[in-house]
Amino acid sequence: MSWKQAVECFCRRELEPLAAEARRVAMSVFGDAVFLRGLIEYTNYCRVNCLYCGLRRSNVDINRYRLNREIILETVMKGFEFGLRTFVLQGGEDEGFPMAELAEICRGIGEITRGEAAITLSCGIRSRKEYRMLKEAGANRFLMRFETSDARLHRYLRGGLTLARRLGALEDLLAEGYQVGSGFMVGLPGERDETIIRNVELCAQLGVDMAGVGPFIPNPQTPLAHVPQEPLEKSLFATALVRIACPETHIPATTAAGTLAADGRERMIACGANVLMPNLTPENHKKDYLLYPGKVCLRETVLKGFDDLARRTGSVNRRISFDRADGIRAGVPYQVSK
Ligand code: 5AD
Ligand code: SF4
To answer: Residue 1 and which of 27, 113, 117, 326 are 20 to 30 A apart at CA?
Structure first.
């Protein structure tokens, strides 16, 4: 199916042919594997004031926390012993968490995992020098969504920060040799079909190794509390479009999709997603990392979560893989263990 035909399917709201094509493409690249990335939400402090996000600076109704080095390493170790080979350290733009400390943590992860695990960071816009220092400390990958490709909307939603600045930071990461993940939300106020199509095209243009698509879920603790919720279907269309436009890109079946519908993540896999991100954040802090309400992982404990994930992938004829699955662009071929 050509990109033009795919866009037409979306505009006519014909999900099934689009999903079938996305599944076919995903199968041809990744086979039936769904890769796991363990997520550790290490700080919920943030200097930015995005209108959509519960961690925004002005939200005084959340308990702020930072995980210390010991807890982070302990959490990684538990996941590593379980078989995970990719860890994502995600946090807000926390000025109280020195980048030098994050670098030490990357070194620590390298040591305890004997360099076998991929280290992914997701801590927002930083200087190129800081990105370099973290890379030298062992970080391999970085996640940073561009959120929306509409420059005006981006600036409005992100407390005055510009799309150009975000894209500049993504360019820095690519130039420093990171495997880069980006992506966008679906259902933001002011977004049009055209915006979604541009978002997908931007993912392709950036040549990212991973592209995350998640439904926007209005958070009552933010200025966007009263924006109506768009149905999950829109995010499913966007997922299928990303798979068709970027055949080799990793696409997570996102927590936000699982929050909107009990089978949201399976439905994303059925639209071409190939990654699941089990949440390893210590139980006592999970409830404080509330980007949006009702986050599904609050109902999943780690081990039960894994059983659940395996069942979910089974229900769409996929199987869980513990492979670290580097980005194809990184020149590392997939060697999916049978
Ligand atoms: N609904 C859905 N996703 C959200 N994010 C932040 N706030 C929300 C929300 N209310 C997403 C953003 C961010 C990622 C970590 O979480 O896309 O990049
Ligand atoms: Fe901070 Fe990221 Fe939330 Fe924006 S989306 S307020 S940068 S944590």
So the answer is: 326
